[in-house]
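Blackboard transcription, Thursday session:
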Amino acid sequence: MPPVGSPLFPEQASTMAPQVDALFFFLIAVSAFFSFLIAALIVYFSVRYRRRSKYEIGAVLHGNVVLEVLWILVPFGISMIIFVWGATLYFRMFRPPEEVLNIYVVGKQWMWKFQHVSGQSEIDELHVPVGRAVRLTMTSQDVIHDLFLPEFRIKTDVIPGRFTQIWFQATKPGRYHLFCAEYCGLQHSQMTGQVVAMEQKEYQAWLSGGEEGASLASEGEKKYQDLNCGSCHLSNGKGRGPALEGLFGRTESLEGGGTVQVDEDYLRESIMMSTAKLVAGYKPIMPSYQAALTDEELIQLIEYIKSLRAAQ
Amino acid sequence: MVNVVHRTHYLNVDYGMKSWLLTTDHKRIAWLYILTITVFFAIGGLFATLIRLDLMTPAGDLLTDETYNKFFTMHGVIMIFFFLIPAIPTTLGNFLVPMMIGARDLAFPKLNLASWYLFLLAGCCTLYAVISGGVDTGWTFYTPYSTISSNGHVAATVIGIFIAGFSSILTGLNFIVTIHRMRAPGLTWFRLPLFIWAHYATSIIMVLGTPVIAITLLMIAAERLLHLGIFDPKLGGDPVLFQHLFWFYSHPAVYIMVLPAMGVVSELVAAFSRKPIFGYKFVAFASLGIAVIGFLVWGHHIFVAGQSVYASMVFSLLSYLVAVPSAIKVFNWTATLYRGSIERTTPMLYALGFIGLFTIGGLTGLFLAALGVDVHVHDTYFVVAHFHYIMVGGTIMAYLGGLHYWWPKMTGRMYPDSMAKVSAWTIFIGFNLTFFPQFVLGYLGMPRRYHVYPPEFQLLNVLSTAGASLLGVGYLIPFTYLLWSLRYGAVAGPNPWGATGLEWTTDTPPPTENFHRTPVVTIEPYVYTEVSRA
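(Written on the board underneath:)
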């Protein structure tokens, strides 16, 4: 049984939840004020100025510029407060802190697969530590899904052919709802699960328990050898492809101008379609690995590339 | 039956089937549309009823997953493309645009009839899809689900909507030309009723926006049938591109649905306060403002679809700008009541109901435009509640209000007023009971389009279903007494409400040529000092 806050309001279980709720309450206050104002005026006027004789007509009032300016500026001003407030929260939601625990998510009709960097993977259940920022890097094997954690007040679409990211920091141990919020076909409403937020120690215990699997990076290394990536991506930088050591996080100049910050999505795109954003000085000769790799293998390769540190 | 002095008017000029099916009279075409959209409303409403019944239990015991998904899709497709978008322009708009500007007909009467036939053809295409197995993509047809995954009749449905789009474009074109070229002598732009301003703004969106959805839907058909890689990433496409194209039309389409409703409400509020609309020019330009800015806010449907945070920020800002003209209208309608001579007739109840529900619908739009809050409520029942407040609480309330207001003009008959008031109240209460709990459900986190849901959401779902049954009854009552009134209703005079406007200066029902003599306009609209009850 998943727990709930109250029957009318969701529990606050992430650092973001109280911040979103604060703006929500402000919006409720604004809405209640204007709704009651309009409703009260309508009721009052329609009683006070009800037609008293058959041929009675209303006063000839064409308008009032001061009033018009007032009710243009006041809603505009309030809107701008809400806009800035909402945008600030949004930037916070999509800008994870430096130190994050990265977890990969693969959505498919109709299940969620979570891959921890250390090698554990789980289906429809996501274990996370409390008090630590967790970033989800997500992709879909088929159609668009959306990972929604209502108690954490976050959601983001999970899109085939690219990575999307969202982060959160759980504040309370417990089991929380996990929904697919983008309609994805027959069993969309059963594409649900639970987030299990645990104290750090219990989380460590959970990580070390269960099936002993190799880490994503070490699995990725095997794949890297199998595909012979190193034959072009020489670590001395003299290969037909750029060196991968220390690549992650760097800003690369592109052929034809512009730059790109190397993140998970750029690595994914370059493996799938190297010609999309070609690093300056290299030729578009790398074939597409779209057919050769599953989403899981792709994630392993990316984790391996991330693990490659620059030679000192 | 009361003795009526025999007079030839547009209804009794000919009774043959052919005289209806080949008519080019805008007033008769309005009736063809009323009949057609009523059928679609009934079908869409039936789907809604079954959806709500199914949601009474968390396990969704009534329907299977597949049936449920098809039902909410067909509810959306039919209600939006075959009821809400055409609802007011093709019926009240068709009937009243020429009458309000003192014209004999629309500029292109044959095109007007052609647009009804296109609409009928489109409806048949979509009904074919419904009957032959249905479609399960949601009315939004998001790719790549709609192009690679769904096994419903996607192609037939989108072709139906594609054709309906042409009907919409032709209607818009007809209105624009008519309003520019066929106004009666002396009827300057600022003497036009606000209903005309609203329809003018709506027509601009119809003509400019509809081609985009037409192209988008063709691309779906092309990817589905010919496997051209446009949206499917496996074929090198971009699935989110579809959402941009889709909402580029479908957000302005919301204004196609609600601007005419605002036009109706302006007329009703003025007529039953017997007073000019407060801030006429502000209300008129607010319509145009909404139409223009409405084209620039589509990205607020894509805040959680991996859109750049900066793009989202701009779309959020623009969405707040489009909220301002709506607020202007609400304040001006309310101010119009001040020192009015207010008669709480049935149409006025609908108009006041509209203002209240539209206010709530509009204010909850502020929640959705707020980036940080949208992330939580996006794709939940909060959104479902919000757009039903705009579309059902707004558009349908105004449509019913308008229908009750112009009914005597259109049919020559009055309807039983007390029964009409009972149904207006039933609809208002039923509506709120149906959709208000959905705001709470949405914030709790219940995603939309869920056939099965966690048990703790049941109470609010049961409340919503209870409201929906009341709402259903509310809609059935006008259907019966309006039909009854056609034969037994009291005979209406030319101007039963004592209202201003050229349509009330001619016979009831009007002659085929609308006016025996072309009217000459010398004053602004809503000058009640000049009107006496006929």
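Lecturer's comment: Chain B has a mean pLDDT of 95.
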